[in-house]
Backbone:
């Protein structure tokens, strides 16, 4: 019997823009699928009708594509309700799903009472003792049941792909609600049913889901299915150590895109922060997939550093070949490999090339100090005839030095300020041949 194709899923709720914390499992699942020749399923957990929107779902697809992820399959839970109905009925028939009629206020009082008695605030399973007459009376009062899954109440053992052997004791947990009073489903049941139906072999997600895994393994077993392999990674936090959250308005992936960051920079920071794989310039996601083993993921928190993102973004641009930049340059009305190779090392974000290109194409505003005017006028007179190459700068400055006696900063800085209007920038020996003699004459007094 052949082994199933490794199949992973990433399952966002389309209730807003995804952030770096969401991108982390999206990317780690992608790396696993690519490394093992597997399949990647994008599952929209959109059963929360009140909060889920198609606009958010479309935005998630755009963000994934921008990061470089192309799912093999897209499914929407809102289109799979019949599968959940079948699973619900099976669990009811087997006695694992039972109706409860307590209101939220009554449940709150029960939890408060348990705390006063120094007992864990878990559900007391009172609904299991209801008679048919009790249920009829509640329904006559207009109450509609929510449905809880009856846990085995035992230690559930599993080998975590990242954290190693794990045990979750479901005896210390409340029987989870799988169906709300209005008949809609909660994540826990839908996720298990989808994993079975889609043949998910590996579930890679944040470590905040470890306790959920014990519950879900029991549901897999109750439905007669083998649970997938689970892997729980450390969570990404912001610079202050706080978790990323849609509710708190954490910076979204689309925000980073709009601010001009490279998708690879964002992907590297989201996935490799908190691992032993160095944060450096990688050319492709596949390169990371082939190098990242899950044993490299730390068991401690992964703290995102915005300054490190800025540095990485610049480093990626500094090594970006012309072939990778040409289409983007054309969109800005720019062209020329020599110009790109000269100016790329000055970029922090790609759009800055439009400003830097003016050093070659003009116009620029020369910066000329009064005390340097005579010096620059002489330099202008000594400007060599074309054709120019990278030796032109040294020939010219040697002639200026011989004529004026100036050297060092007193020689070079006035020339740089006049020719570029800046204290920083590319080497002038490379800039001069690109700008040309006419542009240099126009910039000198």
Residues:
């Amino acid at each position: 019997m052949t082994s199933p194709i490794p199949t992973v899923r990433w399952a966002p709720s389309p209730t807003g823009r995804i952030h770096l914390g969401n991108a982390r499992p999206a990317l780690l699942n992608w790396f696993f699928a690519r490394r093992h020749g597997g399949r990647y399923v994008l599952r929209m957990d959109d059963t929360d009708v009140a909060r889920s929107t198609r606009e958010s779902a479309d935005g998630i697809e755009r963000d994934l594509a921008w990061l470089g992820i192309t799912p093999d399959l897209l499914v929407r839970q809102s289109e799979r309700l019949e599968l959940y109905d079948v699973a619900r009925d099976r669990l009811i028939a087997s006695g694992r799903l039972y109706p409860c009629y307590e209101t939220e206020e009554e449940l709150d009082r029960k939890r408060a009472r348990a705390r006063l008695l120094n007992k864990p605030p878990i559900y007391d399973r009172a609904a299991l003792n209801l008679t048919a007459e009790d249920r009829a009376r509640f329904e006559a009062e207009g109450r509609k049941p929510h449905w809880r899954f009856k846990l085995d109440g035992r230690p559930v053992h599993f080998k975590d792909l990242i954290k190693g052997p794990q045990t979750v004791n479901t005896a210390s947990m409340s029987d989870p609600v799988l169906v709300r009073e209005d008949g809609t489903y909660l994540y826990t049941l839908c996720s298990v049913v989808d994993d079975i139906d889609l043949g998910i072999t590996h579930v890679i997600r944040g470590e905040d889901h470890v306790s959920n895994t014990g519950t879900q393994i029991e549901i897999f077993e109750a439905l007669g299915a083998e649970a997938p392999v689970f892997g729980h990674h450390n969570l990404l936090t912001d610079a202050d150590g706080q978790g990323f959250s849609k509710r708190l308005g954490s910076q979204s992936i689309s925000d980073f895109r709009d601010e001009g960051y490279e998708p690879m920079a964002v992907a590297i920071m989201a996935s490799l922060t908190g691992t032993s794989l160095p944060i450096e310039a990688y050319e492709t996601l596949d390169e990371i997939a082939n190098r990242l083993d899950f044993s490299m993921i730390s068991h401690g928190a992964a703290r995102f550093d915005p300054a490190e993102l800025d540095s990485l973004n610049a480093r990626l641009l500094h090594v970006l070949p012309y072939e990778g930049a040409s289409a983007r340059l054309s969109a800005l009305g720019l062209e020329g490999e020599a110009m790109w190779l000269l100016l790329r090392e000055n970029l922090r974000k790609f759009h800055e090339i439009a400003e830097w290109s003016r050093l070659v194409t003009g116009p620029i505003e020369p910066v000329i100090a009064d005390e340097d005017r005579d010096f620059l006028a002489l330099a202008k007179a000594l400007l060599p005839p074309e054709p120019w190459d990278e030796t032109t700068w040294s020939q010219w400055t040697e002639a200026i030095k011989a004529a004026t006696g100036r050297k060092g900063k007193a020689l070079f800085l006035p020339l740089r300020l006049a020719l570029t209007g800046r204290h920083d920038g590319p080497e002038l020996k490379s800039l001069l041949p690109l700008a040309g003699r006419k542009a240099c004459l126009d910039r000198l007094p």
Q: What stands out?
A: The first helix runs from residue 20 to 35. The CA atoms of residues 31 and 156 lie 28 Å apart. The chain has three domains: 1-101+145-319, 325-356, 370-443.
